[in-house]
Each structure stands twice: as C-alpha cells, then as structure tokens.
Design brief:
The chain is 50% helix and 11% strand. By secondary structure, the chain is α/β, with parallel strands linked by helices. The strands form two sheets. Strands 4-5-6-7-8-9 form a six-stranded parallel sheet. The chain has a three-stranded parallel sheet with strand order 1-2-3. It starts with 7 loop residues before the first strand and ends with a helix.
C-alpha cells in the first residue's frame, strides 16, 4: 500500500569530517561500511534511498554532534558544519532537507544559529544530541533556543548520545563488555533521552512557550507507554499541579527511527494519535530495508499511512 505514497525519513545521519575529528572516540568505533555511509551525501546514499523507496531524507549530524564541543570553538565550527550541509542539500534539493546542528555550549549563539539556518539556509529545524557537556537541556540557560524555535515555527529533535560517564559506570559497566549496546540503543540512549524529555516538561518551558514542538525518535523513547502512570503519579498529593500527559501529547512528536514494532505503533497511535507520529529509519546506523519491510506488514488505513510516511512531516517541517 505505501509504495505509491511519498516517503520522508526524518532521522537520517551524516558525519562532517571536521566535526568528527574533534570528537574521535566520543561515540565509540564505527564499522568501515557504516563510516562510508556517514560521510557520503551523494551517490551511495541516493542509490540506497532509491532502492528502498525513500524520497527525502532529513539529514542531521550524528551524535554527539556539537553538544560535546567546548564553548571556545563550538560557534564557528558548527556554523561551518551547517554551511557544508546546506551545500550538500543544494546539490540534491528534491532529495534532502536539513536539521541544524547547534552550538549549545553557547546558548545565545545557538539560538542565532538556529535562526540563520532556518531563514538563510532553509533548514527545517534542529537536532540536539544528548547533554551539553553534562547539562540537561531543561536548564533555563537553553530556553532562548526554545523561544527562537517557537518564533520560527520549527521543531527541535532530541536525539540520544552516550550517557554521562558516572551514569554509565554505575548503571552499565557490569554488562557493557558482553553487551556493548546496553549503554547505547538497547537501553542507555533511551533512559537518557526519555529523562531529557521528562525534565523538559517538568521545567514548565511549555507553559512559557506553548508553541514549542519537540521530536523524539525510537517511538518516543518508551514515554507513550508510560504516559498514564507518569501523569497519574505527578498528580498525587504533594505535587505542584502538572498535566504531563497533555504537554506530551500536544507538544511532542515521535518517529519510528530504529524501532519497527507494530505493537509500539499501536500504543503510540492510541496515546498520541497518528497526527503526532512520523517515519524515520535512523540510517546508516539502521539500514533502510528493515524499515520498509515493516511498512509492508502494517494494517492501517491509507489516511494514517499517508500521515505516517510524509503528511505529518510536510505539515510539521513545512517541507
């Protein structure tokens, strides 16, 4: 059913050589075939998109992106990274769109860079990967970024990165040798990014910026499944009034990146409606084929399939 519909994939990564050189080792070793695809923004990537039936990739720098850069270098370096991404998109304007990398170690500069990338480079939002040098992004120093995103009408995509070293040591080191992905996609990434989202809601930033939209990958990092319990627990006696579920279902969008589960989709549809779910692969960390094969198995209406594959992305990102 989906094969006659346009497909936009939202969480598709690349690496910039200059930025990656600054971050050697921060995200662990990558296999040669994966590296080849991370650095390719041309023939190989387009061929694999065509083979899978993906019309547009929204490109974003892979984790940890600019979030582990020192404030002394992050602004100029991130600007160059975004300029080079814009050049790659300009070579294939009907196939690529872009999420900006942001120099969050300097929040005011990050807000300005977001505006430049949207207004001058035509980017459709921004992606933030993990914590900024150990600081969660609910901190009010970052709210200027959210104010600018709201004013521009673009979303911020929160993507995982490696957990804090102390968290990794206490939570994961015992099993990290035998199960290296436990600190990454299997669990560590999910815990950190879900915590980031929970803290953002608890900070009440959405009360000040009700038009702010946040995107989470991997079917919302388990949060749709947990919404009822979180909301009910936060309404127990002794808490300040907080409608957690309302903020999440109104201000958050989620994608399918790297999580091709029909059970998860059904849960997300029931909690958030199909209007808040968008398609993504997580290329090249996850290949295109499993995502597209999963789509073939879905028994959902044509209207919902169209929203999932491109309709919501066109509306939210204005592609």
């Amino acid at each position: 059913m989906y094969k006659k519909m346009p497909v936009i994939a939202l969480e598709e990564h690349f690496w910039d050589h200059e930025l990656a050189a600054q971050l050697q080792g921060s995200e662990g070793a990558r296999a040669p075939e994966q590296l080849k695809r991370l650095y390719d923004l041309g023939e190989l990537r387009l061929r694999e998109m065509d083979e899978a039936g993906i019309d547009i990739q929204v490109l974003s720098h892979g984790a940890p992106s600019a979030q582990k850069l020192d404030a002394s270098i992050c602004v100029d370096l991130t600007r160059r990274v975004n300029d080079r991404l814009a050049e790659a998109i300009a070579r294939h304007p009907t196939r690529f769109a872009g999420f900006a990398a942001l120099p969050t170690a300097n929040p005011e500069a990050a807000a300005r860079e977001l505006e430049r990338c949207v207004k001058e480079l035509g980017f459709v939002g921004a992606m933030i990967c993990g914590l900024t040098n150990g600081v969660f992004h609910d901190d009010e120093r970052f709210w200027c970024i959210y104010e600018r995103a709201e004013a521009l009408g673009v979303p911020i995509y929160f993507h995982p990165s490696f957990p804090d070293p102390d968290v990794s040591r206490i939570y994961y080191d015992k099993y990290g040798k035998d199960f290296p992905q436990v600190v990454r996609a299997a669990w560590g990434y999910t815990v950190e990014t879900a915590t980031q989202a929970v803290r953002l809601i608890l900070s009440r930033v959405f009360e000040k910026h009700p038009g702010l939209n946040i995107i989470l990958g991997h079917f919302g990092e388990t949060l749709p499944y947990q919404l009822w319990r979180i909301d009910q627990a936060l309404k127990r006696p002794g808490h300040d009034p907080m409608n957690f579920r309302e903020h999440f279902t109104n201000n958050f969008y989620i994608t399918t990146s790297g999580h091709f589960s029909t059970t998860a989709l059904v849960c997300a549809m029931m909690e958030m409606s199909m209007d808040h779910i968008m398609f993504a692969v997580d290329y090249p960390f996850v290949p295109n084929a499993p995502a597209m094969e999963w789509l073939d198995t879905l028994q959902i209406s044509k209207t919902d399939m169209r929203k999932l594959l491109s309709g919501n992305a066109r509306r939210v990102l204005k592609i």
